[in-house]
Each structure stands twice: as C-alpha cells, then as structure tokens.
Amino acid sequence: MADEMELDDEIENEAIEQAPEVNTLFMPGQTIDNLKALEGTLKVVLGPGLQIQGSKVVVTKVGILRFKEPNVYWLDSHQRRYVPVQGDHVLGVCSMKAGDVFRVDIGSNEPAGLSYLAFEGATKRNRPDVRVGDLLYAKVQTANKNMETELVCVNNQEKSAGMGVIRNGGFVFTSPLHLVRKLLNPECVLLKTLGKTLKFEVAIGMNGRVWVKGRSSVDTIAVANAIMSAEHMTNNQIKVMCQRLSHVLSTVPKEDLEPEEVENIT
Amino acid sequence: MAVQGAKKPQLSKNVLGLKFMQRTVIRLEKEQNADENQRAIDDEHWVIARPVEKQEENLFEVNPSYVFCEELKFGRMSFLGCNPEIEKLMIVNELDHAEKRENEAAVDDEEMAYRFKNIVGSQKLKKKRDHMEILMDSVHEHSSRKKNKKNGFKTTFLKPADD
C-alpha cells in the first residue's frame, strides 16, 4: 500500500515539476518552502504536523511528508497521545454527570464535555440514559487548545448515525493512533477480511480506543489480537494472518463459542 | 454633579433643583459625559503600530484532521449481521463515497451542456422534413455499411471531434 502511494506521488511530482520532499522523513523545527498545489486550486492545505509561522511552513511532528491531490500536505507520524481535532469520532467513557453535561474521558489532556441535549431524540424532559462508566461513541464538536473539548452524539441532521452509548459487553483496548488510522484507511483489508469469516462488531475511535464485540469471548479476543498485531503488517501479511486465524477458530470446540456476557473493561 | 472645573462659577445644588433649571441640569450632564467619553477614547488610542505583513498566509489553509487528509472511513463497523443497524449505515456511507468518486470522474454539468449544445444545436432549427432526410441518410448509411461488411471492408467507430 505504502509503496503504491510512493510511486503515485513520485509520478505526480515529475508531472508538475515541483520538488517538495514528499515521502521523506521530517523532524520538528524543519521548514518546508516549496509546497505547491496543482493548477486550478488556490490554496495549499496543511494537514496535521504542519504549521504556519510567519511566512514559513514549519514541521511540528516527526514523520513522513505525504501529499494528496490536488493540494493537501500532511505528516504521517507515529504517536499514541491523542489531541482532539474537530470532526473526529472518538470512543470515550462517561466519568461524571455534572448538571447538564456529562464529563467524558477520551484520553486527551482533559475530559471532554457532552451536553445531554446532544443525543438523538433528547429534549429537556427526555434525558438520555447515560450512566457513569458507560462507553460512548461521539464526534468532537469543538476542539480548541484554549477551551474544553466538546462532544456530540448526533450528526448535523440530528440523527445518531452510529453514535451514542455502546452497551451489551464487548472489549475495549487502546492502540497507537497510527494503527487506528491504518484500520480506517479505505485500502486496509484487515476488517473486511476478518468480517468474511467472523461475526463481529467494532467501534474505532480516532483517539486510539477500539471496542470489539464478537459472537463469543473467544471471537472477541481473536479479533482484538488480530487488530493489535496488524500494526506493522502489509495487506498480504494481513490476509495470511486472517486465513490462519479463521482456520484456528474453526478447530475451537463449540461450547467455547457460546455467546456470553462480557463486562466492559476500560 | 454640576462640577465644571475650578474656574467656572458653579450653580448651587439648591438652584439646580428648581423646576425651571432642569434644562440646564441636562445640558451640564451631557457636557460631562462627553468629556468622559473623550478621555476613554484617548486612553484606548495607545495601540502598538505594527507593520502589516500577513499577506502570504492566505496561500495556506490549515486542516489538522487525519480524517480529511487520509479519507478515513467511519469507525463503526459490523460484519455478518452482528448489528444490522450499523450494517445499514455502512452501506449508506459506501454509496455516498462511491457517488462522490463517480462525480469526480464523470463529465461535469458544464461540459455536458457545452457538448450537448454543439451536437444538438446544429440540427435544432431544422424542419421535420430535414429530420426525415437525416433519418433516411442514416438508414442508407446503415445499409451501405452492411454492404461494406460483405465486401470485407472493416467499419470502425469514429471518435467525435473534441472541440
């Protein structure tokens, strides 16, 4: 996957005669001068890891510079610490009920606030049923370094669209942020391949938390392990692993695969 | 209330309290307020004079979201009917995404209109009779093509002119 991307980008660079060092390593503090957009676009979009200081573009993370047509540059970095970004879907745990907001731990520097009105069908009278310790899948509404992070559980059409409290067991684990991005990349085959043989459900938060629920606890553990070990695998290696996994699971005795209640572990 | 600096003679409170002095009272109040406002503005006028040099920033736009940059998918997924609601959502998202890609690749409306104008415009104002002639011509051509085939002449599709 990475190789293909590199090739594409190289061809792209030659075509438009620009020389930003796309697909090379950058360190924090380095400046990049020659970022260019393709013709027909006005602005260059700077993604995560790039910052404007005065008239210069400064790198703020360790990582590889990536480019997407027509005008997007960002730094592909490895990190485990989550910094909230507006629009991210995150997996959090309700840690406190404080008046009209819930405090939700999303693994960032401070707990985020979630208004009780930001649920589908919620009114002042009809409060959502969220208890302390509940797992929540929510969207970051405001993310500002000077203000508290704010979450919502509805989209702009007031629909839940997969967000809200997640109940009925399952297993939560924390993974590096780049692994989460890999799982959600349209080119990654891991979940699709697992889903061909295993019946399971996942909720992946951009904050690095992953919730998995399989038919039985054996399945759940299998999927969780598969995700955790896929961090440095290529698509082909992932396919091989999934084959082996489904083969092994087919040998597990049936009584072990009985559905059972699993407590939330966070 | 009626203090107007030390030099000016002042009217006493008692005098100002009289009914016919009310207009004077209002005028004096106004003057005082104006003075105070002036002072407030003067204080705020101390601003650091900085050279304006932020034109280059307009070249860049910051979007710190990986979801946007890497076109990441929605994070909730379900397989083999584990959660039908989520699976419905996945299908909807997939369709949306496919539509977006199609729109990018497809001929856009303007180009379509332009091409259509070129094709249709030439025959638009012709009379019905002309249409019939064109039709007949095409039928004739069709039959001649058949003949060509019989003769071993290979017919090919002609690419329409691009302008």
Automatic annotation (TrEMBL), chain A:
Per the UniProt record, which residue ranges are transmembrane? none
Q: Which domain of life is it from?
A: Eukaryota
User: According to its record, what are the GO cellular component terms?
Assistant: cytoplasmic exosome (RNase complex); nuclear exosome (RNase complex); nucleolus
Output the Gene Ontology terms for molecular function: RNA binding
Q: Please state where this protein is localized.
A: Cytoplasm; Nucleus, Nucleolus
Q: Which UniProt keywords apply?
A: Cytoplasm, Exosome, Nucleus, RNA-binding, rRNA processing
- Domain spans labelled K Homology: 170-216
Tell me the Gene Ontology biological-process terms attached to this UniProt entry. CUT catabolic process; exonucleolytic trimming to generate mature 3'-end of 5.8S rRNA from tricistronic rRNA transcript (SSU-rRNA, 5.8S rRNA, LSU-rRNA); nuclear polyadenylation-dependent rRNA catabolic process; poly(A)-dependent snoRNA 3'-end processing; regulation of gene expression; TRAMP-dependent tRNA surveillance pathway; U4 snRNA 3'-end processing
InterPro entries recorded for this chain? Exosome_RNA_bind1/RRP40/RRP4, KH_dom_type_1, KH_dom_type_1_sf, NA-bd_OB-fold, RRP40_KH-I, Rrp40_S1
Matches recorded under Pfam families: KH_6 (PF15985), RRP40_S1 (PF21262)
Per the record, the similarity remark reads: Belongs to the RRP40 family.
- Which PANTHER family does UniProt cross-reference here? EXOSOME COMPLEX COMPONENT RRP40, PNAS-3 RELATED
List the protein's name: Exosome complex component RRP40
The protein's organism comes out as Acanthosepion pharaonis
From TrEMBL, chain B:
GO process annotations (BP): maturation of 5.8S rRNA
Which residue stretches does the UniProt record annotate as biased composition, category Low complexity? 153-163
Basic residues compositional bias, start-end = 143-152
Q: Where is this region: Disordered?
A: 139-163
Protein name, entry field = MPHOSPH6
The record lists the organism as Acanthosepion pharaonis
